[in-house]
């Protein structure tokens, strides 16, 4: 197996939605290369392809939101992860409702079970992708009884898209 496929050994992984916006445009994408990286300050890291519109908006605004989808958003997550905001409006096509965040320009996703507002602490190119570290400055979560299951993405050896609730 080619070493570029090393990450096939690291599945399944949780999938999140990531939003970012400038005054001209807001966008949302699916991301699975995501991890908590600090408790104090609370921080999260994600890695986005250099071609991603979300990455471009994130680096321009230095802000983003990580929205946690449940299984009800499976179709929207697949749409967000298979098309670029350069081509379509993913909020509209995915039936996702952007809601004004309290402290960042990026919108919350109304249908998500939780939304984390983040400020970019750093970003660094790692080749094909850029590693972004963000401090979580606000958390919006729904009551436990209203929560659905998080989504897991299983790329596996055949690299097929499969999301399990
Ligand atoms: C379930 C799933 C998870 C994904 N995770 C990532 C990821 O962590 N990083 C990444 O760069 N692309 C990831 N992608 C692909 C991007 O979402 C995709 O390239 C998207 O079209 C980029 O959109 P944008 O240009 O609007 O930002 C994922 C796709 C799917 C379906």
Task: Please give the structural blueprint.
Elements: E1 13-14, E2 16-21, E3 26-31, E4 34-38, E5 43-49, H1 53-61, E6 63-68, H2 74-82, H3 90-93, E7 98-99, E8 108-109, E9 114-125, E10 129-141, E11 152-153, E12 163-164
The protein binds flavin mononucleotide.
Flavin mononucleotide is lined by residues 15, 27, 29-33, 47-49, 52-54, 77-78, 81-86, 129, 153, 161.
Main attributes?
single chain, 165 residues, mainly beta, Pnp Oxidase, Chain A, seven-stranded antiparallel sheet, three-stranded antiparallel sheet, 3 helices, 12 strands, 13% helix, globular, binds flavin mononucleotide
Structure description:
The protein is mainly β and 165 residues long. The chain has one domain (3-164): Pnp Oxidase, Chain A (Roll), CATH 2.30.110.10. Helix content is 13%, strand content 39%. The protein has helices at residues 53-61, 74-82, 90-93, and strands at 13-14, 16-21, 26-31, 34-38, 43-49, 63-68, 98-99, 108-109, 114-125, 129-141, 152-153, 163-164. Strands 3-2-6-9-10-5-4 form a seven-stranded antiparallel β-sheet. Strands 1-11-12 form a three-stranded antiparallel β-sheet, with no helix packed on it. The radius of gyration is 15 Å and the shape is globular. The protein starts with 12 loop residues before the first strand and ends with a strand. Residues 156-160 have low confidence and may be disordered. The structure holds flavin mononucleotide. Residues 15, 27, 29-33, 47-49, 52-54, 77-78, 81-86, 129, 153, 161 line the site of flavin mononucleotide (FMN).
């Amino acid at each position: 197996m080619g070493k570029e496929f090393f990450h096939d050994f690291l599945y399944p992984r949780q999938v999140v939605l990531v939003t970012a916006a400038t005054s001209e445009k807001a966008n949302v994408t699916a991301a699975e290369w995501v991890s908590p990286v600090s408790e104090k300050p609370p921080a999260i890291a994600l890695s986005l392809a250099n071609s991603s519109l979300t990455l471009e908006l994130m680096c321009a605004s230095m802000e983003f939101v990580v929205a946690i989808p449940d299984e009800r958003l499976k179709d929207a997550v697949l749409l967000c992860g298979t098309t670029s905001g350069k081509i379509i409006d993913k909020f509209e096509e995915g039936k996702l409702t952007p809601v004004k965040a309290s402290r960042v320009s990026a919108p919350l996703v109304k249908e998500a079970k939780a939304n984390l507002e983040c400020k970019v602490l750093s970003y660094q190119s790692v080749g094909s992708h850029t590693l972004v570290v963000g401090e979580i400055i606000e958390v919006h979560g729904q009551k436990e009884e209203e929560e659905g299951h998080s989504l897991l993405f299983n790329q596996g050896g055949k690299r097929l898209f499969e999301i399990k609730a």
